[in-house]
Amino acid sequence: MKIIPLSEGAFTIDQSKKFLPFDLDNDVLTDRPQGSLLVEVQPFVVVTSKDILLLDTGLGFEINGKMQIHKNLIDGGINPSEVTKVLLSHLHKDHGGGVGYERDGLGARLSFENASYFVQQKEFQYAFEKGFPSYTTQELEALKENEKVHLLDGDGVIDDYISYKVSGAHAPFHQVFWIRDEGDIIFYGGDEAPQLKQMKHRFVAKYDYDGKKAMELRTAWWQQGMNEGWTFLFYHDVRNPLYECKKPDNAGL
Question: Which terminus of the chain has a smaller tally of CB atoms within 10 A, N or C?
Fold first, then answer.
């Protein structure tokens, strides 16, 4: 499988839940409001033997009238129209901002017109109930009553090789994905496995819906991934977009 990180840049985020651009070479984290977190915003494309998968859709920002995620895809050699499936861990504005767009006179449209979208039904409902500032609902309007959108109910498998599971630790109906193709396993944990350092150190994060559960899930996933040789994708890691675990060598046992 081919993996392409689609970095939208580094940002800080504080209690206001505003994403402020951060220059890693020139900006200083301590100059930002107290409690600010430094994060990357980084969707992924995974090219498998069956699909071109997009994992989450970024902030939905535009550059010179063009969606940034579209530009990043084209820079990576992929036309946005070639994306076949969009897998959404959850719909917080930094993960679901690019699902659709609205133009005067045209209404809300999906950003990837030829793709099937997969999101938990309860997460979709929760997003509109909860609303701003965690969710920007006008960006999600294109998901409503659209035949391309598959509202999932709990755990399952897509096309016999993409497994999804409701993990519910960062947000109540957050889901995670395993992509198994040609002997490889890619794991995408969204905001419950967002950075490499969080996999290696146990701590409870205040920004999670259930921080203790998120900590325990990370520990379990990391151990299983190390044992089975998973490749982890880290949406919010400014240095390590992915990490490939090597399978233990038991040849001499």
Answer: C
Q: Read off the tokens for 91.
A: 């719909």
The Cα–Cα gap between 253 and 250 comes to: 5
How do the residues of the chain divide into helix, strand and coil, expressed in percent and rounded to 5? 25, 30, 45
Q: Kindly state the average pLDDT of the residues 38-48.
A: 97
Residue 234 contacts residue 241 (beta carbons within 8 Å) = yes
* 34, amino acid identity: Q
What residue segments make up the domains of the chain, in order of their start?
A: 2-244
Q: What pLDDT was estimated at residue 65?
A: 86
- Span 2-244: which CATH code? 3.60.15.10
Whether this model's pTM surpasses 0.85:
yes
CA neighbor of 92 nearest in space, from 44, 150, 135: 135
What integer best gives the mean pLDDT of the chain?
A: 94
